[in-house]
């Protein structure tokens, strides 16, 4: 069995604003793993990325990247971050920004850049500020990948991107993960990206980590059961995340446990249904 290596380790990370508190956060992103970050608008995803990239200073906690505490800027050579980085240079053309970025990264891959520019049909003579929202997202994505990073931090990379390009981005991310050496932390609002790309899921709610799951656990454990009647024991059980009286049904995050209790309580199970990822995410975020 392969030893798990932490590419990103976050311990006791905290940040407070006047009206919002993030953390304390504790989580790891292991090598070869894609972690999906989901949560309602304003739950703290972008703030987390800003803290990870040192764009914003944490109030407390530690962030280790590639096994070491972040110091200086050297660690950024191996990290690809898509989100708000190009704002300061947006009066330049994409070609000019590329010249700056490629100078900074010792591992810049010009051939990959040229290929991706063609693949995503980007006009490099366009000023970044003049690009459409979706085109900016694609340009950010290309810059993120072309310096051969080992860790990608992607804040909703496909938001506002056309369907064809979304598919290409997903293909590029799957290829990026191909050698099993790299990792991604991906904030997303789409169940499809979770299904197709992620191994683990962290659910944020009002600045807190509400749930953290392996994706297979979700497929295995989450389900909807139509039952003869709902009792108070079922209503209040910690593994019941939602229940309805009419018609009597419950949503659980641990099918096996709940099926056993229903048997004990002599409640008849009429039907069991696995949940789709969309439904699971909705229940995790909403309830
Ligand atoms: N510099 C700041 N000063 C004060 N409050 C801030 C600052 N930055 C973020 N916040 C607050 O932190 C909270 C989380 O914002 P954040 O942008 O991280 O959410 P998000 O999960 O990325 O949302 P979305 O899904 O809409 O992108 C919000 O309430 C926001 O107002």
UniProtKB/TrEMBL annotation:
Transmembrane segments: none annotated. Pfam families: ABC_tran (PF00005). This is ABC transporter ATP-binding protein. One of its GO terms (molecular function) is ATP hydrolysis activity. Gene3D superfamilies: P-loop containing nucleotide triphosphate hydrolases. It comes from Oceanobacillus bengalensis. Residues 3-231 form the ABC transporter domain. It comes from the Bacteria. Keywords: ATP-binding, Nucleotide-binding, Transport.
């Amino acid at each position: 069995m392969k030893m798990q290596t932490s590419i990103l380790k976050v311990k006791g990370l905290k940040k407070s604003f006047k009206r919002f508190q993030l953390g304390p956060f504790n989580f790891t992103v292991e090598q070869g793993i894609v972690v999906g970050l989901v949560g309602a608008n304003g739950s703290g995803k972008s703030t987390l990325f800003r803290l990870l990239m040192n764009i914003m200073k944490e109030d407390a906690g530690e962030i280790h990247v590639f096994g070491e505490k972040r110091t200086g800027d050297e660690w950024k050579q191996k990290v690809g971050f898509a989100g708000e980085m190009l704002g300061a240079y947006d009066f330049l053309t994409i070609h000019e920004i590329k010249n700056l970025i490629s100078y900074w990264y010792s591992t810049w891959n010009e051939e990959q850049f040229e290929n991706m520019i063609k693949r995503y049909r980007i006009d490099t003579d366009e000023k970044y500020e003049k690009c459409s929202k979706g085109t900016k997202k694609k340009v950010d994505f290309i810059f993120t990948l072309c310096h051969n990073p080992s860790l990608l931090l992607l804040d909703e990379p496909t938001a506002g991107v056309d369907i064809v390009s979304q598919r290409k981005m997903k293909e590029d991310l799957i290829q990026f993960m191909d050698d099993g050496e790299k990792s991604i932390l991906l904030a997303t609002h789409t169940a499809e990206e979770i299904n197709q790309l992620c191994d683990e899921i962290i659910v944020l709610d009002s600045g807190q980590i509400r749930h953290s799951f392996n994706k297979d656990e979700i497929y295995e454990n989450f389900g909807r059961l139509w039952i003869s009647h709902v009792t108070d024991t079922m209503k209040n059980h910690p593994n019941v995340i939602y229940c309805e009286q009419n018609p009597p049904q419950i949503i659980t995050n641990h099918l096996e446990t709940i099926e056993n209790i229903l048997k004990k309580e002599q409640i008849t199970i009429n039907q069991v249904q696995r949940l789709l990822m969309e439904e699971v995410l909705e229940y995790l975020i909403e309830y």
